[in-house]
Hints:
The chain has 6 helices and no strands. It has helices at 5-29, 36-44, 52-64, 76-92, 98-115, 122-129. The longest helix has 25 residues, at 5-29.
Amino acid sequence: MSFTSYEAFAVTRAVMLVSVALGEALSLCRPLGIDPARLMDIFADSSGGTNALKVRGPAIAAMLEGRDPGPVGFDIDSGRKDLRAMVAEGRARGLDLPLVKAALACFDEASARGMGAKDGSSLVVYWSGRKAG
């Protein structure tokens, strides 16, 4: 299956938004002591996750356990670039994309903390451990 640039753009948007949402969901699960690999399986095999978790779930679980997740596939700073382009595209079409703007703020924060070159899935782990305030 091949995608047009706009279809790929839309898929990328969804994956980046899910990264932030998954991080938030995991922050609620962390205190429960559930095995990270089991958590990824639960999300990947339920309506709470996406197909991306079938591929990135093991790397996310490894990071949650403090292990090396392997090579970087798509880094956080590249995600920031794409999210900024999505905001601009929405503006050009007269659309407000509040979730994209919120995801961009999350990616910007992670990058400002030195995570820009890390794999985008590391944002899930960062957000799952982020404290309020």
